[in-house]
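Example for tutorial group B:
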């Protein structure tokens, strides 16, 4: 359980003419090999920005990054571009949300996988092509010996995503970041991609960070969940506890926005309002303007002081960033059976 990915007090800011966009504020978590961490939250909560920082993909000329990101003991913050090029693909890889825009239309699928492999291995083109065919076969592409010479437009959406996974795993990285890899796919292909990622994780023993909006996917694939809001982690813990008995009002709101798939359908309870602008994050708890429980905390503390992300129950693995001393609401049944 030694952490392979360890993030400590990460802050990512983007200076603009209108002010500083505080995209990630004081994020800390650790992930060992063999486990999957799902990061969830509304758009703009900092999920993708924090993961791109792990890969060293932010332009240092327009980004301020402080804190620590260690992958396999290597410090990523402040690493030179030359060392980052050696790090990406070998130690950590990323599957992006839209394979159509991530794959180059002028080069064959095989050429793009081979380029990734040859960047880290001194091998001939023939050897690299054999490795590309092997990986396409491993991710379930039919007739990989023929498909390796085809272009992205000749692949379906699901096959392009499989090709992206093959490219990400061709160098056997120990950390895989999947940024909403099933968003543009139909339900059947989504299930296949999720099964594929789970199978490959078992085979490679990788640590997986899975970014998604879909809590049904979280229930299926994750070991742990990190809930983010306005650049902060607001809840962190094992998937069954987070989805079954959430401690933070924002997590409650996300779960109550899911329609029931069985039994008598009841009214949805959407979270009121909209996420705050990261140019002007509210004082105190950023969620308090939308929180229905803010009046239960004395002296207006929610609007004045940002709570710490600490254990608020007897379970040390259950962390919550909320001034409430304990859960104000207990679900009558576990939320997991309700998830689509």
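The residue assignment follows.
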């Amino acid at each position: 359980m030694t952490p392979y990915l360890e993030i400590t007090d990460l802050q990512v800011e983007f200076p603009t003419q209108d002010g500083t966009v505080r995209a990630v504020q004081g994020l800390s978590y650790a992930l060992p090999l063999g486990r999957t961490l799902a990061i969830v939250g509304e758009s703009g909560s900092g999920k993708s920005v924090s993961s791109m920082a792990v890969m060293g993909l932010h332009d240092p000329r327009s980004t301020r990054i402080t804190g620590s990101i260690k992958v396999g003991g290597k410090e990523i913050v402040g690493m030179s571009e030359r060392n980052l090029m050696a790090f990406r693909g070998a130690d950590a890889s990323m599957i992006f949300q839209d394979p159509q825009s991530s794959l180059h239309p002028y080069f064959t699928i095989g050429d793009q996988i081979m380029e990734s492999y040859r960047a880290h291995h001194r091998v001939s083109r023939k050897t690299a092509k054999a490795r590309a065919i092997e990986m396409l076969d491993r991710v379930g592409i039919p007739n990989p010996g023929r498909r390796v010479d085809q272009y992205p437009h000749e692949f379906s959406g699901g096959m392009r995503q499989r090709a992206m996974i093959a490219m990400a795993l061709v160098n056997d990285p120990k950390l895989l970041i999947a940024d909403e890899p099933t968003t543009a796919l139909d339900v059947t292909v989504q299930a296949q991609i999720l099964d594929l990622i789970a199978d490959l994780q078992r085979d490679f023993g990788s640590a997986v960070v899975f970014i998604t909006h879909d809590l049904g996917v979280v229930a299926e694939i994750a070991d742990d969940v990190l809930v983010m809001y306005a650049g902060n982690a607001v809840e962190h813990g094992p998937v069954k506890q987070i989805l079954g008995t959430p401690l933070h009002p924002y997590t409650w709101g996300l779960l109550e926005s899911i329609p029931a798939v069985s039994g008598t359908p009841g009214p949805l309870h959407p979270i009121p309002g909209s996420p705050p602008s990261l140019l002007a994050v509210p004082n105190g708890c950023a969620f308090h303007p939308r929180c229905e429980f803010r009046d239960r905390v004395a002296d207006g503390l929610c609007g004045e002081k940002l709570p710490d992300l600490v254990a608020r129950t007897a379970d040390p693995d259950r962390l919550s960033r909320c001034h409430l001393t304990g859960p104000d609401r207990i679900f009558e049944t576990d939320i997991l059976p309700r998830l689509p």
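The CA atoms of residues 139 and 168 lie 11 Å apart. Compare this with the pattern of hydrophobic and polar residues in the output above.
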